[in-house]
């Protein structure tokens, strides 16, 4: 039980810290919060956190295999590279359009949740991250389902905690978010460009 609690706490804080730097998911949450309000931001965060739960589950179940097969990691990175290129083009095109703000509705709430699911699904970086965390706990001995569940839930909860902090933070500086809202698509396109560069570096660095 102590081992499970230790695994939960370390994974929780690792996931919490991992989402702090500006990235695809947290900037999408911030953008949704600014454009459509707190409810939309929270729903994006919730959708993303559910996917993180699944990613962490995959990571801990396949930790030994992925960790000992760099080819699998490289293929994941290449898939992510293609997605980032496509999304970068999309955000740049959206930035060139003039759009009016649409009031939130039940339909837009569902779209916000699905946006969180989609954004987190194409973001492949958490899986190697959680693989590295899980291998620190001697994966050769394997994990029981209690530890597997605790690990995955801690990853999702830690992610949601940081994303919710992003929502609250952007609401507190609401008066200063007009510029962010106006240029958010350009910002997201630039972020995609950075992620493309980082992914390319990782692919070539791993040989």
From TrEMBL:
Subcellular location: Cell membrane
Transmembrane segments: 6-29, 41-63, 75-93, 113-137, 143-171, 183-205
Membrane topology note: Multi-pass membrane protein
One Pfam family here: LysE
Identification of the protein by name: LysE family transporter
Main location per the UniProt record: membrane
Record InterPro entries: LeuE-type
Signal peptide stretch: none
Keyword entries, A-Z: Cell membrane, Membrane, Transmembrane, Transmembrane helix
């Amino acid at each position: 039980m102590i081992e499970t609690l230790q695994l939960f706490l370390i994974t929780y804080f690792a996931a919490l810290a991992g989402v702090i730097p500006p990235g695809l998911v947290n900037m999408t949450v911030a953008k949704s919060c600014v454009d459509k309000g707190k409810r939309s931001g929270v729903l994006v965060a919730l959708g993303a956190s559910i996917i993180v739960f699944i990613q962490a589950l995959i990571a801990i179940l396949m930790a030994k295999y992925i960790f000992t097969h760099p080819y699998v990691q490289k293929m994941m990175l290449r898939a992510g590279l293609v997605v980032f290129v496509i999304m970068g083009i999309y955000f740049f095109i959206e930035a060139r359009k003039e759009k009016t703000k649409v009031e939130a509705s039940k339909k837009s709430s569902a779209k916000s949740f699905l946006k969180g699911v989609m954004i987190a699904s194409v973001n492949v970086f958490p899986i190697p991250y959680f693989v590295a965390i899980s291998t620190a706990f001697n994966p050769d001995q394997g994990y029981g389902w209690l530890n597997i569940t605790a690990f995955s839930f801690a990853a999702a909860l830690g992610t949601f905690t940081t994303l919710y902090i992003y929502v609250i933070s952007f609401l507190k500086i609401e008066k200063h978010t007009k510029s962010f809202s106006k240029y958010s698509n350009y910002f997201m396109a630039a972020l995609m460009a950075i992620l493309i560069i980082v992914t390319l570096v990782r692919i070539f660095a791993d040989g």
